[in-house]
Amino acid sequence: MLSDPKAAQLSDSVPIDTIWSILDAANELGDAHTVEACRRAIDANLRGDAAVEADLAAIAAFFA
To answer: How confident is the model at residue 3 (pLDDT cuts 50, 70, 90)?
Structure first.
């Protein structure tokens, strides 16, 4: 799935507000993997950096 161009485009377009919402939901569900990916993506955003593709893929996979 990581090599799927559509998945990469979807992942690149996840707004930070959506990531915060996913973080809340993942916390409630006890999904530690997604929580950590969200935290790293949020931290990268706060630093002005791009999130790592693997973290974005994990965040996008939360809906799968």
So the answer is: very low
